[in-house]
Amino acid sequence: IEFASYNALTWLQHDCGIDVRLVRDKVSGDKFLHMIANSPFASRFIRKVAENSRYRPFDEATLNLVDYGNRPTTELNNNGEVWLQSLVRRGDIKALDVAFSPNCGLAWEDYFFFGDVLELVAGSIKESDNPIMQYIFDAFISFRALYQQLDALADGCLTKHEEEILQDDRLAIFRGEDAKHAAKLLTRFYRDWKDRLSKNLMLGRIFRAIMEKGMVRLFQLLYEADQGLFEINDYMAFANEDRQQFIQEELRTSTENDDDAGSFTINKFDACVLGSYLSGHDIDGADFHDYLR
Fold first, then answer.
1. pTM of this prediction?
2. How many angstroms separate the first and last alpha carbons of the chain?
C-alpha cells in the first residue's frame, strides 16, 4: 500500500484471499484508498485502475474496489475526509488530475464521484486556495454535467415521452433561457467523446428516437446546434395494419412468429411530421420547413 502497487494488491486479493479494501489505520482512521492517496505513487495506481476499468481484460485478474458490501470511494477517515481530500491536502496535483481525467482517469466511473463526495472535495479545494486544483475540479464538474445530460437522454428516449424526459433534473437547463447554448455544448461533447460514449451508453438510438417519437423541443434544439447528428439515411415508422386480417391463409405475409405490426423506412422530413403526429403534437410539415432544407 505504501508504494501503491496495483499488481501486488491484486495478487494479495486474488491469490492470497486478502481483502485489501478492509485495511485500516487505527490511529488516523484512514481507510484503504486514503492510504493509497497518501502514497507518492498514487497517480500510478489511479491510472492503472482507470485503464482496467476501460478495457476490462478477461485474461488477467483486476483489483475489485467496489461491490455491494464495500464502497471505499465514499468512506471517511477520523477527520471526516474522503480519499480524494487526502490528495488535496497533500497537494498532489498530478494524482488529482489523473483521478478527474476523462482521458486516462476515473471521470467515467460514477461510483467514484457521488454528489456528497464531490461536495467535500470542493470544500477542501476551496480551502487550499490552489488555482490549478480548482481548474481541474471545475473542468471535471463541467464534463460530468454534460455526461449526465447524455445519460438522461439515453435513459429516456427509448421509454419516455418528451415531457417526462425534460423533467429530469439532469436536463433542467433545457427548460430555461440557455437551452440553445446548452444544446451546442451537448452536441460538441458528443462529437468529442462519441468513441468513448458508445462503450458506456446506448447512444446509437438517441437522435433517431428523438425524431421517430416526435420530440419536437429536443429535436429543434439539437438540430439547430448540429444538423449532422441527424444525417441518418432511413428512419423507421410503424404501420397500423394487421397482417392477420386476411381470411385466406395464402394471403398472409407473416407467420405466427412474426410481429403483427408492419414497419417501413421513411426520410428525415417524414419522420419529423409523423413522429409529431404520433406524439400528440398538432404540427404539420411547415413547422419543420426551416429546419429540414
1. 0.78
2. 61
